[in-house]
Design a protein that fits this description.
- The protein is of the alpha+beta class and 216 residues long.
- The protein has 2 domains: 155 residues, Elongation Factor Tu (Ef-tu), domain 3 (Beta Barrel); 54 residues, LysM domain (Membrane-bound Lytic Murein Transglycosylase D, Chain A).
- The strands form 3 sheets. Strands 2-1-7-8-9-6-3 form a 7-stranded antiparallel beta sheet.
- A hairpin with a 5-residue loop joins β7 and β8.
- The protein is globular, with a radius of gyration of 22 Å.
- About 2% of the residues have low confidence.
- Pfam families: LysM.
């Protein structure tokens, strides 16, 4: 799997390291109307724009987990995402081996620099599917008042947090990772308990490129 971005000029950007997971959010839009003496009612207003989110990092040095050898400079890669975020033009997002091939706007990307990993730049990216504006007929007040008498459905936002992950680097150990990520090297056992399937029977034999789930 590879993640591609094509801007309006046809320039291609390929993310050097695949994320642990890609989340696609689809939801229904609702408008809340307050009716005197009856309370609040939610009415569906159409499908909301889909959001595609994922997290990864730009490594300073090529490693076996990278998609290609000629990886971009992390700061230059970050600036490319910043430029696409600031642009008013949609970009095409293609994720190979998946059905994702859509025009999107880069809604946000957050950057993180971690101690002990000089040069690497971590990021969280949110893309929203782009579509042309459509003109809708304004609903008459009488129609809105009539609709307020119908049974409403409440849409609740998904507040489940995505588990934090760590990519094993050369020279890492579980105690070192526990010290960097959890602030206490003695918490390595908690990391191992969550990742026994990935690591195997020997906690001392972690390998570069492995994605480890961090305790919350």
């Amino acid at each position: 799997m590879k993640i591609h971005l094509f801007d309006a000029d046809g320039s291609e950007f390929i993310f050097p390291v695949n994320p642990e997971e890609i989340k696609i959010t689809r939801s229904k839009g609702y408008e809340t109307i307050s009716v005197l003496s009856l309370g609040e009612f939610d009415f569906p207003t159409g499908e909301k724009v889909k959001e595609i989110t994922f997290s990864s990092f730009f490594p300073a040095v090529y490693d076996s987990y990278c998609n290609y050898e000629d990886i971009p400079d992390p700061l230059e890669a970050m600036q490319t995402l910043t430029r696409m975020t600031a642009s008013k033009q949609p970009v095409r997002l293609i994720i190979t081996d998946t059905p994702v091939n859509v025009l999107v706007l880069i809604a946000a990307h957050d950057t993180t620099f971690k101690g002990g990993e000089p040069g690497d730049v971590y990021f969280d990216l949110t893309a929203r599917t782009w579509r042309e504006m459509k003109v809708h007929t304004k609903v008459a007040p009488a129609a809105v008042a009539s609709a307020a008498k119908q049974t409403a459905t409440t849409a609740r936002a998904d507040t489940k947090k995505t588990a934090k992950t760590y990519t094993v680097k050369s020279g890492d150990s579980l105690s070192k990772i526990a010290k960097l990520e959890l602030g206490n090297s003695s918490k390595w056992q908690s990391i191992y308990n969550l990742n026994k399937t990935t690591i195997g029977k020997d906690p001392n034999k972690i390998k570069p490129g492995q994605k480890l789930v961090m305790p919350s």
